[in-house]
Specification:
Elements (H helix, E strand, L loop, with lengths): L1 H4 L2 H34 L4 H13 L3 H14 L4 H16 L3 H14 L6 H14 L2 H8 L9 H16 L6 H28 L3 H14 L6 H15 L2 H14 L35
Helix pairs in contact: 3-4, 3-5, 4-5, 5-6, 5-7, 6-7, 7-9, 9-10, 10-11, 10-12, 11-12, 12-13
Length: 290
């Protein structure tokens, strides 16, 4: 048996050796390229480094821009180019989808330069990043309703935009931040509406009415306010409270006389949980990026 298979062993060892050498060479090539890139930036004047990184950004090469900006900061830790490089690094990370890294870079900048002239932009950028994390990604890629997911990061985004509006009302970012806050409030209102409809579907009428009331009190003038009134009318109908149900209908008739609820268009709840709201299709959108 030993002599029968012996001739094959050298061939197998040769193949394994060649594969090992190929993998080693590939690794060395990648390491050599990385080292070469790092070495190419060694000792380069700060102006050239900044121009190089900025050129990468204009070409959409966010990864290379981030690497070069970080190299600039490491070699020149102080000065206006460094400050701008920190700002650009955060933006490049945001554009490349590295949201956690972008938040870290933004927070570092705000801790280091709390009164910097670019502070308003960094708060605004942090709002954009938080608006884009997880929730909206899933909404866009998998068509999931953002209002049904964890709202922690959208809430943080709302806080970030609120800082821009309150602290820097005259900045160039204030108007857009205000618009984005309104969009986020609609998202939060829809979340409350979906919860109210969830209770209504399960004949938990008191909970449904309470949640709809909370929506109206917390997010006045949202695009879901009339749906909330309709939910209250349906809940009071379920409770047998004719007076409150009639009051809710009267308010709805004044605000939206053609609302589906008033015409008796109250379809059965579909099994597809994404279509829980019987009043309308998807009204919400957080699909505006810088």
């Amino acid at each position: 048996m030993t002599h029968r298979f012996a001739p094959r062993h050298p061939v197998a060892r040769t193949v394994i050796l060649l594969l090992t050498l190929a993998l080693f060479a590939s690794g060395c090539a990648r390491f050599g390229k990385m080292f070469k890139d790092e070495d190419a930036n060694e000792g380069v004047p700060v102006e050239e480094l900044y121009d190089k990184a900025h050129t990468s950004m204009t070409r959409g090469n966010w990864a290379n821009a981030t690497t070069t900006f970080k190299r600039l900061v490491a070699q020149y830790p102080y000065g206006p180019y460094t400050e701008q490089a920190l700002v650009e690094t955060a933006y490049a990370q945001y554009k490349s989808g590295k949201h956690e890294e972008a938040i870290s870079s933004i927070d570092r900048f705000l801790r280091t330069y709390p009164t910097h002239r670019m502070a308003s932009y960094m708060y605004y950028l942090r709002g954009l990043v938080n608006s884009s994390r997880d929730t909206v990604f899933l909404q866009r890629v998998w068509h999931l309703d953002a209002s049904r997911r964890d709202l922690a990061t959208p809430m943080q985004a709302h806080n970030d935009f609120s800082i821009v509006v309150d602290r820097y009302p005259n900045s160039r970012y204030a108007a857009d931040a205000r618009q984005r806050m309104a969009t986020l409030r609609d998202l939060f209102a829809r979340h409350e509406l979906e919860t109210a409809l969830y209770y209504l579907r399960r004949t938990a009428y008191v909970a449904a009415a309470d949640r709809a009331t909370y929506l109206l009190e917390t997010y006045p003038q949202s695009q879901y306010q009339n749906d909330a009134v309709a939910t209250m009318a349906a809940a009071y109908d379920g409770l047998g409270n004719e007076q409150l149900a009639a009051d809710a209908r009267r308010v709805l008739e004044q605000n939206e006389p053609d609302h589906p609820f008033l015409s008796g268009d109250w379809p059965d709840y579909p099994s597809n949980f994404r279509k829980l709201n019987p009043f309308a299709g998807d009204k919400s959108a957080l699909d505006n990026d810088e």
